[in-house]
Amino acid sequence: MTNGQAETRHTARYREIATVLRRHSFGFLAGLIGAGRRNPFRRGDAASAPAADTSPVHVRRALEELGPTFIKFGQLLSTRPDLVPPALADELAKLQDAAPPVPTEQIRSVIRSELGSEPEELFATFDDEPMASASIGQAHTATLHDGTPVVVKVRRPGAVAQVQEDLEILRNLALRASRAWSLAREYDAPGIADEFAQTLQAELDYLQEGRNAERFAADFEDDAEVRIPRVYWDYTTSRVLTLERMWGMNVGDTAALDTAGVDRKHVARKGAEIVLKMTFEDRFFHADLHPGNLFIHDDGTIALIDFGMVGEIGEDLRGQLSALFVSLVRGDAELLASALVNMSPGSGGVDRDLLRDDLAVFLSRYRLRSLRETPFARMMAELFAILRQHRLRLPREMALLFKALLLIEGLARRLDPDFRLGEALEPYAQRLARERVSASVLAQRIARASADLGELMLEAPGVLRRLVDHADGDGLQVHLRAAELEPLMGRAERIGNRLVAGMISAAFISGIGGLVSSDRRWRSWENVMVGTGLGMIGTLGAYLAVTARRRGRRRR
Fold first, then answer.
1. Interval 158-192: pLDDT, tens
2. Strand pairing class (137-143; 149-155)
3. Half-sphere exposure of residue 314: CA atoms within 13 angstroms, side-chain side
4. Which of 81, 373, 459, 479 has its CA 20 to 30 A from that of 20?
């Protein structure tokens, strides 16, 4: 289906969105979707577009009126300090994912359809009154026939269709915005929309949430201080999730914790250890540990719930984290700039010299402190401000990771005002730094670089042959398309330095020049291959020489 067909199918929803946007002083955005024809937002108007009141309160209220999908989008943005300023993030954090309860008969109908029987036959007890009702699902308390208390989460009827429609509209809006608005283009609005769609679609599948819960349970099976609810698979499908019910005190209820005799300092440290173990040892972490998803028992045991939003630390992300921590510990602005640019999608237009200068000032404020003495939240707030200033965007998993770290620091400081996340984080950061220069890791990086270079060499003839096939009897016209060269250049950049990609591009251009100037097609093909091959060999040698010189300077 084309964009035009999709927009026709969603005409009513587009008009509703445009009406809400204009009511909250976002007429310039309404113009992007074609509903603000009287004052359309034309290309080049970005600097003066938001002339009316576009305060954070108006943003929150507009998202609330637009419904569940947009509320969740606002909640996601509230956790992205690399994208939105603190005032807007704080306002968006007030968005509540609440919805009117689904009629009882509809809930029962879903259970019958998914589990094959009436709730009274499946469970010893089932409470028709929901304990919570959100945009995606509704939760009911129940009891299994063996007496086990459980929570039954039921996906709202029609939730998937509505979410999919809104996600399609959001993608279309993001694409239009990036074409007409320089700010949306710099932040890669379509990429943000795709990341949000990925996050929200994962929450629609209760089977995935159940698998997440089981993975966490396996990771903490030997830790008696952590409770993860059991998943009852006989009563679980993609639309119904049945979990062991968890109880406990809220992390913010310090009076109740003190009355129960809970050691708040110990619980604060344990909470941080849980997240750090998830992140740096298990490489699979809970990305939404707000106070409602964490309970504390009288004995100090911590229970976790709600596993719809998770993050995973792959090898690439672990390498990026390593580079980030090493540059922070060393106070190396050049290394930190490279780490941030390399991990940021769509960072080609950044001014590296200006970024390096801003990071040097930032690092100078923390140079004399160890990580354990560093105010982590304040340091990250300053770093996020630099990211926003230079239009750099963290990859999804990295953003989720920082969200998890900042959330747990906030929770821990409620329990213990003297808590410092840097103290708990320092051993993991040091381990990452050691891993970065260990022989085994260097060997793995060389092996990956060799594999990338091998694939690069294998793909080069195909790319060049397609270029030759465009030649005709009167000469040659060369059209270099990003889609043709992007996989090739992507592998070149992963070898370790953008200089490699630039020099390989130069080798291609040199080879193509030989092709254009040659009289005979086959001879020119040979010229291209020889010239390009020599260029690649020279490139690899230059890269290794540059790397060796840099390491030599660092040792001195």
1. 888 888 888 998 888 888 888 877 777 777 888 88
2. antiparallel
3. 4
4. 81
- Strand-strand pairing, 137-143 and 284-286: unpaired
| 396-415 helix and 264-277 helix, angle to the nearest 10 degrees | 170
> What are the tokens at 110?
């879903």
**First CA to last CA across the chain, in angstroms?**
60
Q: Which residues contact 208 (CB under 8 A, 6 or more apart)?
A: 202, 308
Q: Is 288 among the catalytic positions?
A: yes
- The string of pLDDT tens digits covering residues 227-278 is 999 999 999 999 999 999 999 999 889 999 999 999 999 999 999 999 999 9
Distance (Å, rounded) from C-alpha 541 to C-alpha 545? 6
C-beta separation of 395 from 276 below 8 A: no
Q: Pick the catalytic residue: 219, 288, 306, 452?
A: 288
DSSP-derived secondary structure for 491-502: HHHHTT-HHHHH
pLDDT in tens, 57-110: 988 989 988 888 888 888 888 888 888 888 998 898 888 777 789 999 999 999
Q: How far is CA 388 from CA 132, 251, 326, 341, 384, in A?
A: 36, 32, 22, 13, 6
Instruction: Give the separation between CA 368 and CA 91, rounded to whole angstroms.
Output: 35
